[in-house]
Amino acid sequence: MKYLPTIGLEIHAELKTVTKMFCDCPNDPEEQHPNVNVCPICLGHPGTLPTINKTAIEAMIKIGYAVSGAINPQFKFDRKNYFYPDLPKGYQISQYDAPIVVGGRIDISARIGEPKTVKLNRVHLEEDAGKLAHAKDEQGKEASLVDFNRGGLPLMELVSEPDIKNAKEAVAFAKELQLILRYLGVADADLEHGQMRFDANVSISSSIELGTKVEIKNLNSFAALESAIHYEIDRQAALLDTGKAVAQETRGWDDVKKITVSQRSKEAAHDYRYFPEPDLPVLAASDFPLADLKLAVPELPDAKRRRFKELFGLTAEQINVLVENKDEAEYFESAVSELEADEGEVVNTEKITLLFNYLNSDLKGIMKDRELDFSNLKLTPENFADLIAMAVKKEISTRTAKDLLVKMLEKGTDPRSIVQEEGLGQVSGEGELLAVVKTVIMENPKAIEDYKKGKIEALQFLVGKTMAALRSRGNPEVIKSLLEKDLSR
């Protein structure tokens, strides 16, 4: 039988603040030593009182504006009571019925290639729990160790409406949210460091009525999110096909066996015994600089995609590559603005595409080898654009352009200075090239014989030999023309 999946996501992301949510302990995801960024407040000692991190609230308001949500006129914190080894207080400070952001939407059309917008239910703020590490002691017995460094970090939770229909849309939604958070600068959302995690609510039905919802908890990669949803849809379908009922429960993802496993029956809100946090005040949105925070929201990924499409004539795939990294997109745009236009013309798509190709393959390849990123390059967009202009005008060969990139990254020098210092300009004059061509012809009689027998590849061999003799400075088109003219005699 054919079933219709319905999926909603709950996405957690740690916010990038200097200190934790309710105390002055450092917010340092890179800290490797356990239990050093802790204090009596985040460890839940009796008699301690939390204070609210204003920067985290302002980050949430910016997120609200970015996803077109409504900022609640008043919002508060609540205690969510449950017991777990990594939650020393026995409760988590979260938000229940008065979150900071209500509603909103995220457009994922550019990622899936068809129109699709996912509506949001809410975005609220809470504190993160600690982290459990499971290991064996010297006797081989299982042991669980608790690291509270993460406990108390400001944690955004975004809850979507059940608008998602398949795993592809779910991953697209998660990736677009990650990118929005990075553009805002409020979160790194690094999956490898556990700074972003997903819960997926999955149900299937053969009618318009929703099926029984199953929650898959703590998915820590896009691959896990996709695989877990695929598996859960198939698992529920197999149950319904055999006349069995799907149990409402919470399941975990076994990344080794690639299956979901039952953890507990699904809790309802009353199971957590929410009540208003008595140690924290109700906050009014009007107490925050809303107009300034709205203005601080930068151009977001989807708007940048639309603008790049109008301005640069690139393909959707090329635009997506650029937009995935805010610094890269800004570097590219700055370089394009520096490209020389032909007299009386605007910079054409061919030049822009060449610039993109050099940036995406050659420049990024060298950067990867040297562990560089676009935020700290010595190579300025102006100098990079000048390099492309020289290649377009055939002032330098393609090979020389690639070599120049390395030198420019190392020295931070403009390409024309290096070309002049090292004599790397492209040789295009027939008189200068002809002498080298004749020498190559004399030194390679076998290739000449092969060419006259109809082996066209022999011509390319001779072009290569000539280019080598000229240290890649020769104009290959002129060289080829001279060879063909000489060999036709």
TrEMBL record:
Enzyme class: ligase
Keyword Ion transport in annotation: no
Ranges of residues in domain Asn/Gln amidotransferase: 330-487
Keywords carried by this UniProt record: ATP-binding, Ligase, Nucleotide-binding, Protein biosynthesis
Domain of life: Bacteria
Catalytic activity: L-aspartyl-tRNA(Asn) + L-glutamine + ATP + H2O = L-asparaginyl-tRNA(Asn) + L-glutamate + ADP + phosphate + 2 H(+); L-glutamyl-tRNA(Gln) + L-glutamine + ATP + H2O = L-glutaminyl-tRNA(Gln) + L-glutamate + ADP + phosphate + H(+)
GO MF term (any one): asparaginyl-tRNA synthase (glutamine-hydrolyzing) activity
GO biological process, one term: glutaminyl-tRNAGln biosynthesis via transamidation
Pfam families: GatB_N, GatB_Yqey
The EC number(s) this enzyme carries: 6.3.5.-
Subunit note: Heterotrimer of A, B and C subunits.
Record's function text: Allows the formation of correctly charged Asn-tRNA(Asn) or Gln-tRNA(Gln) through the transamidation of misacylated Asp-tRNA(Asn) or Glu-tRNA(Gln) in organisms which lack either or both of asparaginyl-tRNA or glutaminyl-tRNA synthetases. The reaction takes place in the presence of glutamine and ATP through an activated phospho-Asp-tRNA(Asn) or phospho-Glu-tRNA(Gln).
Family under the similarity heading: Belongs to the GatB/GatE family. GatB subfamily.
NCBIfam families, A to Z: gatB, PRK05477.1-2, PRK05477.1-4
Protein name (Swiss-Prot/TrEMBL): Aspartyl/glutamyl-tRNA(Asn/Gln) amidotransferase subunit B
Gene designation: gatB
